Amino acid sequence: MPTKRQFLKTAALLAAATGMPLRAETASAAKPSPQDSAPLTGDARPIGVDEFRARIACAQELMGKFGIDAVVLEPGAAMRYFTGIRWWRSERLTAVIIPRRGDIGVITPFFEEPSVRESMAFGDDVRTWHEHESPFARVAGFLKDRGLKSGRIGVEATVRWFVADGIRAAAPGFTLVSADPVTRGCRMIKSPAELALMKKANEITLAAYGQVYRRLEPGMTPADVNQMMRQAQVALGGADVWTMALFGEASAYPHGTDQPQEIREGQIVLMDCGCSVEGYQSDISRTFVYGEPNEKQKRIWQLVREGQNVAFAAARVGEPAGRVDDAVRAFYRKNGFGPDYQLPGLSHRTGHGIGMEGHEPVNFVRGETTPLEPGMCFSNEPGLYLPGEFGVRLEDCLYMTESGPEWFTVPPASLASPLGRLG
């Protein structure tokens, strides 16, 4: 069974994938062959039961440390992380309860029990409720059966108010507190199995970029490019695919604009895309120029690329995560951008945590004091945005090892070869 210490040994246990840099081709290149679109997920290994059990053990250890007697999870990334259960949220409560001692329990509607059990990776304590009954009474009953009559219940960060309020009313001897010290304490440190799935998701997204880049043509709209990118990632085995494409002046707005856009000669094409494999996310941004770039485009692109290097160099085990952001802003200010979040410059954080969710704590952002540890994963995306002109964002994700950061995907070498390669 994996232990938390084993979770930290990422460098030795995550084999570096080999790959040749993707070659830029003209927009008139042939469409991808069937071989180009063959799924890349044949060797992806789902998280095993032993690791799920180790996660519960880790959570219970942290619950003891922080004085939390039980943790409540609703469907979503946290529930899937700790139990493997893939479910959805509705007005009918399905929840997982992790007690400080003993086996986990599942609360779900009676008619959903067979489907919920089918999704469970382990455990057999499923307590059902009928439509005229209160699910919160089942929660209180579970706590009592685990020997808990009072104490502190940790509520996972995304649990809805009506759920927390219902539990509080049904179990008045308990105080509700944040479960973040437990859930974040486990989820921030990725195991070798998690890192392998994230590497696979990044491989898919990078390969899809290679296909789409070769097919860009004048007159294409963001919808055209997004459709190509979605299709490519799905064909390569990605799930939960998302895409964003911004052209020209629209690229100066990090999350886009409703302005009409189409590809023109000499124009910036900024894309931000990702997918998941077995629940684990990729997140890669690329900035191209269709046709011949001008000198300003080249200069800004190269500054952003160097900004990634500055962030990578600042990411050191034991250092506060916020210092990565500080280092990038200092570099940009020396080159005439900013200061701080001012435009033209970097108007958002340098990076965010990533794992089963595209954005997770902790972030590369000013004031973040959490020390960097092996197993943490982050995006590295120090964009530069020039309102009224264009923006450049290059985003590659990294994971921390005991000797420092490693890339999931290695950023591109130059605007002339703007795709990059696997780490």
Please explain how this structure is put together.
This protein has 423 residues and is of the alpha+beta class. It folds into 2 domains: 49-187, Creatinase/prolidase N-terminal domain (Creatine Amidinohydrolase, Chain A, domain 1, 3-Layer(aba) Sandwich); 190-422, Alpha-Beta Complex (Creatine Amidinohydrolase), CATH 3.90.230.10. The chain is 33% helix and 21% strand. It contains 12 helices and 19 strands. The protein has helices spanning 4-8, 10-13, 49-66, 77-83, 113-119, 135-145, 161-170, 180-187, 192-213, 222-235, 295-314, 322-334, and strands spanning 70-73, 95-99, 105-109, 126-129, 151-155, 174-178, 239-247, 267-277, 280-281, 284-290, 351-353, 360-364, 377-380, 384-386, 390-392, 396-401, 404-407, 409-410, 421-422. The protein has a 6-stranded mixed sheet with strand order 4-3-2-1-5-6, with helices on both faces. A hairpin with a 5-residue loop joins strand 2 (95-99) and strand 3 (105-109). Helix 3 (49-66) runs antiparallel to helix 8 (180-187) and helix 9 crosses helix 10. The longest helix has 22 residues, at 192-213. It is elongated and about 70 Å long. It starts with a helix and ends with a strand. The relative contact order is 0.14.
